[in-house]
């Protein structure tokens, strides 16, 4: 009998949690995502593999430093030799972008429309990797629930706010229990078919933060894709604020 009561209580608790989760609005879910993605600073090393539409592959390695949940980001390419030393600095949640070339020893500030451009020929645009809170960048609704890789997810249909990116809309699959994003479909030019899709996998807890160790952006139009594999993630490494100074990229 005791076991029966325990099972009954557990069922009620589970049902209550499910009902609570189902009652969340898109705005509330976006705020939960912001909590999950919040961090003070992080250092990462990444291996990026770009596969073109004809199957050609090229691999790059990147070291990156980030503060204030991506408000400040510095990426330095270390491999291959022809791009080694190239730096990309993004400030103000990606609104301001600088690029430094060791060949010319020049730093240039990219125009605002450059945010839509691909980063170093990858399938990620500057606005894809720019920081910023989801609750400030998007608004929308929960349209359904769906399972991805065994994880129950909310599916959000979101449109950018005036401060958001340039896409018409996105669909985002968000874990119901951990609020980690598993997948994003991107739509543009009024099309009903996503022109690219981001998959976030092997989500791992590091120093209390949920980190997707694999991120793959697939181009649904030409069949190309870009895979980012996290080789190192350190939320405790000391980062000096002056590395985010656009006047010091040549050092």
Which sequence of strands runs across the widest sheet?
A: 6-5-4-3-2-1-13-12-11-10-9-8-7
- Percent of residues in helical segments? 10-25%
Extract low-pLDDT stretches. 1-20
What's the main sheet like? 13 strands, antiparallel
SS-based structural class?
Answer: alpha+beta
Strand content: 35-45%
Shape: globular
Q: What value does the Rg take, in angstroms?
A: 20 Å
> How many beta-strand runs?
13
Per DSSP, the total helix count is: 4
* H/E element order: HHEEEEEEHHEEEEEEE
Mean pLDDT: 91
Q: Separation of termini?
A: 72 Å
Short description:
With 251 residues, the chain is α+β, with helices and mostly antiparallel strands. The protein is 16% helix and 45% strand.
Commentary on this structure:
This protein is α+β, with helices and mostly antiparallel strands and 251 residues long. The protein contains four helices and 13 strands. The chain has helices at residues 2-22, 26-37, 126-129, 134-137; strands spanning 41-51, 57-67, 72-79, 87-91, 96-101, 106-109, 138-148, 151-160, 169-175, 181-187, 196-206, 209-219, 225-234. The chain has a 13-stranded antiparallel sheet. The longest helix has 21 residues, at 2-22. Residues 1-20 have low confidence and may be disordered.
């Amino acid at each position: 009998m005791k076991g029966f009561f325990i099972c009954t209580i557990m069922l009620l608790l589970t049902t209550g949690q499910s009902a609570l989760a189902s009652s969340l609005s898109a705005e509330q879910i976006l705020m939960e995502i912001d909590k999950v993605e919040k961090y003070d600073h992080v250092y990462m090393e990444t291996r990026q593999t770009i596969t073109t539409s004809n199957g050609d592959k090229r691999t790059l390695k990147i070291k990156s430093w980030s503060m204030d949940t991506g408000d400040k980001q510095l990426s330095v390419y270390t491999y291959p030799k022809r791009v080694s030393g190239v730096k990309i600095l993004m400030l103000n949640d990606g609104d301001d972008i600088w690029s430094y070339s060791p060949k010319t020893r020049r730093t240039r500030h990219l125009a605002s429309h450059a945010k839509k451009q691909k980063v170093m020929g990858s399938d990620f645009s500057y606005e894809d990797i720019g920081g910023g809170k989801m609750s400030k960048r998007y608004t929308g609704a929960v349209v359904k629930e769906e399972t991805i890789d065994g994880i129950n997810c909310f599916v959000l249909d979101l449109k950018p706010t005036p401060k958001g990116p340039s896409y018409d809309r996105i669909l985002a699959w968000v874990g119901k229990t951990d609020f980690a994003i598993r997948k994003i479909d991107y739509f543009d030019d009024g099309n009903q078919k996503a022109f690219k899709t981001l998959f976030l996998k092997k989500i791992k807890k590091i120093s209390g933060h949920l980190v997707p160790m694999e991120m793959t952006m697939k181009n649904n139009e030409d069949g190309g894709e870009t895979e980012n594999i996290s080789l190192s993630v350190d939320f405790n490494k000391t980062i000096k604020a002056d590395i985010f100074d656009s006047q010091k990229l040549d050092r």
